[in-house]
Amino acid sequence: MKYIANIMSMANLAFGVMSIYFATKGSFVAACIMLLLSVILDGFDGRVARHFNCVSEIGKQLDSLCDLVGFGVAPGFLLYYFIYPLIGEFAIAFTVMFVLCGAFRLARFNVLNIHEYYVGVPITIAGMFVGILGFWNLKIPAIVWIIIAVLLSYLMVCSKKFKKF
Question: Which among 20, 25, 58, 134 is placed 20 to 30 Å from 76, CA to CA?
Answer without folding.
Answer: 58
